[in-house]
């Protein structure tokens, strides 16, 4: 048997064993997200408008991750709206940044991998790099949104008459705890990806000038920074959505 | 915690100061050419020539276009000189770039016979983007988290320095002990990060233990699976930027990549269990274990998705190129996405394993502490 199916089965069993039904749903969300990612890249390859396809699939990925990640309707709905708003904000940051940095496509370090491939493929690689950056930030945004709205949901359950302003302050407190650990997830996640590249830089004696202006390094670092800014923005935005919902509910009753 | 003043006050003075510092910083980096040894030039005029449409073997339509750039040199012995540079770019801009006015470029200058200078472009200067976005991220971090934000920043910087040292060590040893070096580094990373976040407490020791068990467990599982499946369907030779034996580098990348997520989860579970124990000290060991599992269950899905999306999105450019070069979906996946997929699966296994480990460690320690 080949390696990937064995690992898939092992992960599935582990998730089922530890998480039960919730584990099953989490595994399902991974599978659907994989299909969506693959679909996105295939559609881009088939000349569909890159940003349109990416944004559409990005919203579906957020929905899948959030609705299969938690059961409580208030939590999931708040997290979903919050994360979609954050995604829009992040996209507004990504588009000018990528135009400015011009880190699309491939660097000189990729030359060997590109041997025998035609580069004149009629796809705007700048848009591909925007798509990459958007998609890589979604997971972190969804995770933060769920964590904050779940935390706030807990506070609301204990104290349903809590004032809207008080709730906002609590959201920021909950958020503080989340940022610290998410920071680690993101940085180490990317550190892992950096390893091969850094060994390359060191082996070939790159100077610091080449290093901080290098296309691939800059593109990876931009991805970290943007995901991270997305996570920070998620805190006030999700709390704000929760406050709106609570206000409406309190006004309605 | 609850007593913290809820008002989120940021005075205008602070905002003004931040904007001023940020503006100065960007301006400074834009005028830092004198720090560079490589010649830097600014584009003052762009003249685009005619487009030539191109069709490759796979019927992809593209074009190439030449542009003549007037570039003013900003540093070195030719400072102040204005030179003409030719550049060719395509519609896709996969390896080439279409330059615009006011951009700064790195140049390669050669003196030809007579006083003619032959100038070619080597790359775009990108330090301003990096500095301004880093500044934005750091300001947001410090504004939302104040002191703990500062500690988080310190831990990342320290980890970065250690990472560099480890890479130097690896290159010096010719990549012979890459796995040993980076596995040790993972221990140190975890220990230091948790120490900076939690201090030298029992909670930190338990979290450290759970993180190590989760990560170690996933590595052992991976090694076993790789052995028993004979790495069928994997192509380590397709790894990007590889200068030494790829398989250990891949494992080291996976360990580092999943470490943060495993730490994230263990921290969440264990700090919740410590808080729970404080609130309801009569809970039994088994009950604590079950609540730990309950908390872990709801975090694991989103957390695995975080890493999965990071690992997968990274392969996009190459995937698109493969697909446009007439390769089948399956082949494009195998050559580009399969290693990222393995990395996500292994990290996922680590994240799941950390749940029982964290719950078990925390519940046993809390209960033993009680009886002692």
From TrEMBL, chain A:
UniProt key word Transmembrane helix: yes
Pfam families hit by this protein: YibE_F
Keyword Thylakoid applies: no
UniProt entry keywords in alphabetical sequence: Membrane, Transmembrane, Transmembrane helix
Membrane-crossing residue ranges in chain numbering: 33-66, 78-95, 178-201, 221-242
Name assigned to this protein: Multitransmembrane protein
UniProtKB/TrEMBL annotation, chain B:
Pfam families: YibE_F (PF07907)
TM regions (residue ranges): 12-30, 133-166, 178-198, 204-226, 303-324, 344-366
Alphabetical keyword list: Membrane, Transmembrane, Transmembrane helix
Name of the protein described by the UniProt record: Multitransmembrane protein
Organism: Pediococcus cellicola
């Amino acid at each position: 048997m080949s390696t990937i199916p064995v690992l898939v089965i092992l992960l599935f069993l582990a998730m089922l064993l530890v998480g039960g039904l919730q584990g099953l749903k989490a595994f399902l969300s991974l599978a659907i997200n994989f299909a969506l990612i693959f679909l996105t890249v295939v559609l881009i390859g088939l000349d569909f408008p890159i940003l349109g396809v990416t944004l559409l699939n990005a919203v579906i990925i957020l929905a899948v991750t959030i609705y299969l990640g938690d059961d409580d309707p208030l939590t999931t709905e708040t997290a979903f709206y919050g994360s979609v708003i954050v995604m829009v904000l992040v996209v507004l940051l990504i588009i000018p940044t990528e135009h400015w940095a011009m880190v699309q496509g491939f660097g000189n370090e990729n030359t060997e991998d590109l041997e025998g491939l035609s580069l004149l493929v009629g796809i705007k690689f700048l848009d591909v790099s925007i798509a990459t950056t958007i998609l890589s930030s979604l997971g972190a945004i969804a995770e933060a949104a769920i964590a904050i709205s779940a935390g706030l949901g807990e506070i609301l359950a204990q104290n349903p008459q809590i004032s809207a302003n008080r709730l906002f302050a609590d959201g920021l407190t909950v958020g503080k705890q989340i940022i610290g650990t998410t920071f680690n997830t993101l940085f180490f996640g990317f550190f892992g990806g950096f390893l091969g590249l850094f060994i390359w830089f060191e082996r070939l004696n790159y100077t610091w000038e080449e290093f901080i202006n290098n296309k691939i390094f800059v593109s990876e670092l931009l991805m970290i920074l943007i995901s991270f800014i997305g996570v920070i923005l998620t805190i006030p935005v999700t709390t704000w959505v929760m406050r709106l919902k609570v206000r409406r509910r309190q006004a309605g009753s | 915690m609850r007593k913290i003043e809820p008002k989120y006050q940021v005075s205008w003075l602070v905002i003004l100061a931040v904007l001023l510092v940020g503006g100065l910083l960007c301006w400074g980096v834009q005028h830092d050419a004198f720090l560079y040894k490589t010649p830097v030039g600014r584009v003052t005029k762009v003249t685009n020539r005619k487009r030539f449409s191109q069709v490759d073997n796979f019927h992809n339509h593209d074009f190439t276009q030449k542009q003549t750039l007037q570039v003013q040199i900003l540093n070195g012995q030719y400072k102040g000189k204005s030179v003409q540079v030719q550049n060719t770019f395509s519609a896709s801009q996969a390896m080439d770039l279409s330059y615009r006015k006011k951009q700064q470029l790195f140049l390669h200058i050669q003196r030809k016979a007579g006083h003619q200078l032959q100038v070619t472009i080597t790359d775009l200067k990108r330090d301003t983007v990096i500095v301004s976005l880093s500044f934005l991220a750091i300001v947001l971090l410090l504004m939302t988290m104040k002191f703990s934000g500062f500690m988080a920043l310190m831990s990342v910087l320290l980890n970065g320095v250690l990472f560099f040292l480890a890479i130097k060590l690896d290159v010096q040893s010719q990549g012979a002990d890459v796995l040993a070096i980076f596995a040790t580094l993972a221990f140190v990373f975890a220990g230091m990060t948790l120490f900076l976040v939690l201090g030298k407490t029992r909670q930190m020791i338990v979290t450290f233990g759970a993180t190590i068990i989760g990560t170690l467990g996933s590595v052992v599982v991976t090694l076993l699976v790789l052995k028993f499946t004979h790495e069928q369907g994997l192509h380590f030779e397709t790894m990007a930027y590889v200068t030494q034996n790829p398989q250990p580098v891949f494992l080291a990348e996976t360990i580092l990549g999943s470490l943060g997520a495993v730490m994230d989860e263990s921290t969440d579970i264990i700090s919740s269990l410590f808080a729970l124990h404080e609130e309801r000290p009569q809970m039994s060991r088994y009950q604590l274990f079950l609540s730990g599992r309950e908390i872990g269950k709801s975090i694991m899905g989103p957390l695995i998705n975080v890493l999965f999306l990071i690992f997968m999105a990274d392969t996009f450019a190459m995937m698109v190129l493969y697909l446009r070069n007439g390769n089948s979906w399956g082949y494009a996946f195998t050559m580009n996405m399969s290693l990222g997929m393995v990395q996500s699966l292994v990290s996922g296994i680590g994240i799941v394993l950390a749940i029982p480990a964290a719950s078990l460690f925390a519940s046993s320690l809390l209960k033993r502490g009680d009886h002692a």
